[in-house]
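Incident log entry.

Two folding requests arrived from the same account within the same minute. Monitoring flagged them as a possible duplicate submission, but the sequences differ. Recording both here for audit purposes.

Request one:
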Amino acid sequence: MQEARIMLGLLESVERDGAQTQRRLASELGVALGLVNAYLKRCVKKGLMKVAQAPARRYAYYLTPQGFAEKARLTVDYFSHSFAFFRRARSEYSELFALAVSRGFSRLVLAGASDLAEIATICALESGVGIVAVVDKSCTKSKSVGVPVFGSFDDVTVGFDAVVVTALQDASEVWCEVRARYGSERIFVPPLLGLADQARPSEHAG
């Protein structure tokens, strides 16, 4: 879903202004500059975009008919899946936050600045827990839904009780890193991420 969202966002941005810099595209999409470059090359190779020389040694991208068709397909696909995804994610994070509260955890950090982080932040407001930070090494934004974003756990200076995994693309890697730092008892992972060896909510309860 994350990859489709980035691709859709890129196609929409290029349609609006194909002459904007890759740095601006990266900022708009909230991803690393190198990732934007890779996606642009992939789009050109697949025939979704064409590239032309622009003033000041820059390049301008524009969508091909195939690119417009792909954007339409991704739009329909994204909205058809997003509502079901939102409902499931909201339900699972609400359960995790209720479990966190039952264990005395009220100040949480989200690991991953994806769509899940936004959903989790909404659930947190309803569950009586506070999200004090989001940690994501590849995120270029300074805030996510009003919450400060840091590139590393070492940069988080406020105290917190536990970590909730909200990464999508590299969830397994993030979970392993957090577990090594803080131990399994301080990590909460929703089942939708599909981590085979994750601790289930019932196993957290003690």
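Request two (distinct sequence, not a duplicate):
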Amino acid sequence: MMRRSLMTVLLAAALGSALSGCFPLIAGGVAGTAMVASDRRTSGAYVDDQSIELKASSQLSNKFPNAHINVNSFNRTALMTGEVASDDERLRAEMVVRALPGVKRVENYTVVADPTTFSQRNNDTWITTKVRSRLVSGKGNYSSQAIKLVTERGVVYMMGLVTREEGDAVAEVASQTAGVQKVVTLFEYLNAIPALPADASSAQ
């Protein structure tokens, strides 16, 4: 019974991470190796990304309590989306993120507008879920686990370490998903698909 409960918790955690676009680093053993390898980031970059997101959320919410700013980090590139009150606030928010330890690059896609409604944010979450589901079930020559998805106001942002062939394929899947207004690709391109370590390959 206890073993079944543990499996249920692990499966729920994995599903939640898949829908958000990133997979958890399970410390130690083959599981940890497989997660990082399929994600294609180093474990150090993964940890830095988590730290960047947490610190950005804390600092931005304190400095700009009336703004709606999301920060998602992949391989130390911080993507900013959401709504701010003015161009000045947009610039100041970007400066906060740029100053965070570990940040190599900032992509600021925030807009000057009223914050989105709860309904709009739910719709964005649903769009992300649909795109993720189509990527997972698709038969294209790409790894869905290598892609991080963020949706804001119907615009899908895609991050990841991919080849150009993979990037084009996943962008096409996203663009053909119902409800998607636009696709923005922020990939870091690889010359070739990296090989998985032997223990990670056997775990998948």
